[in-house]
Amino acid sequence: MRTIDSDACVASMKIMASGDLGELARVVHPEAVNREAKDEPLDCRGRGPAAFAATARWLRSAFADLDFDIHDVATDGDLVVVHCTMSGRQTGTFLAYDERGEVAQAFPSRGRTMAITQTHWFRLRDGQVVEHWANRDDLGMASQLGWVPPTPGYLWRMVRARRSARRQQARSS
After folding, report:
1. Residue 109 domain-assigned?
2. CATH number for position 25
3. Burial 125-161 (b: 16+ CB within 10 A, else e)
4. Residue range 114-119: average pLDDT?
5. Are 37 and 51 in contact (CB under 8 A)?
6. Structure letter (DSSP) for residue 150
7. I need a surface site. Which of 38, 49, 121, 129 has the fewest CB within 10 A?
8. What is the pLDDT of residues 62-98, one digit of tens each?
9. 1 within a domain of the structure (yes/no)
């Protein structure tokens, strides 16, 4: 069994958190796909560094001080698994999208911080990320950020934020 270098995987996560997105082309293969992009904007669902950069912009639009603290990295052939803690402070509205790419949910910022464990799975080709998927603690994040259980006032803010995001999306289409 051939062992591969996991540096591209960790680098892709650090680059996405830092915002230096021009560096993604160095570590993300032109045919790379993010299997987690189904709830993200349509431009995140493409292939290659541009789609990964779109995911980074989407995350960074809602979270300041975004960071991935790497705990463990394991490799098996062309597969790399990264166990980490993602942390940040919500400063913008977090938007989730439906299968058509339309805004499905909007979670306005309450200014809170979160730190959740995640496991990211990467497949590499030619030393670059070619596939990504993850296991995340979305309920833990929602609890830490005050999204659940929602208060009546927060539910109203969610409705207003979703309407606003949908209007903005319609104007830019």
Report:
1. yes
2. 3.10.450.50
3. eeebbbbbeeeebeeebbebbbbeeeeeebeebbeeb
4. 98
5. yes
6. P
7. 38
8. 999 999 999 999 999 999 999 999 999 999 999 999 9
9. no
